[in-house]
Each structure stands twice: as structure tokens, then as C-alpha cells.
Amino acid sequence: MTIKDMMKYIESEYSVINDTPCEICGGDYIAKDSDVAVINGIPYDICDCICSECGHEKTFQFCAPFVKDKNTKNIKNILN
Ligand SMILES: [Zn+2]
Question: Per its UniProt entry, which superkingdom is the organism in (predicted)?
Fold first, then answer.
């Protein structure tokens, strides 16, 4: 794990958040908090976000710790 990989991982999370419109009003989500939780033995990065327009809250889950390029698609599948 290098700093560069870590940055790439975090960037991929934020790009997913930025690409996801609010389900209520279509506004942009802003990350307000993140934490790591272990679910079924798999660590997840849990990111609490809030809509900048209407305040609707949404929690994003990302497989953690580290996402390889081939897993980028899987992140989106989890969200869908
Ligand atoms: Zn909204």
C-alpha cells in the first residue's frame, strides 16, 4: 500500500459520491463523516453524506481497505 494507492482509493470514493445525485432532489452529496466497519468479516469504509440542497442523508459503503482497478466497478454495483 503506497500513499499513491491510498489517494487513488479515496479519490475513487469521492468520485462515486460526486457522481451520485440526491435521490430526493437530485442535488450533490457532501461527505460529512466517515468510519470503518467490519461486516461479515469484510472491512467497509462507511461514509455519511448529506445533500447540499435539501439535507437528505445517505450512507455510502465502500469495500475497504483497498480497491484495485478491477474492483472499481464493484463499488458502483454495491451502491446500486
Ligand atoms: Zn437533496
Answer: Bacteria
Distance 1 CA to ligand 1 centre (A): 36
Q: Does residue 22 have a pLDDT over 50?
A: yes
Report how far ligand 1's centroid is from the alpha carbon of 48 (Å).
14
Q: Is residue 74 part of a domain?
A: no
Q: Which contiguous run of DSSP H or E holds residue 17? A: helix 3-19
| pLDDT tens digits, one per residue of 38-60 | 888 888 889 999 999 999 999 99
CATH number at residue 40: 2.30.30
C-alpha cell recorded at residue 18: 460526486
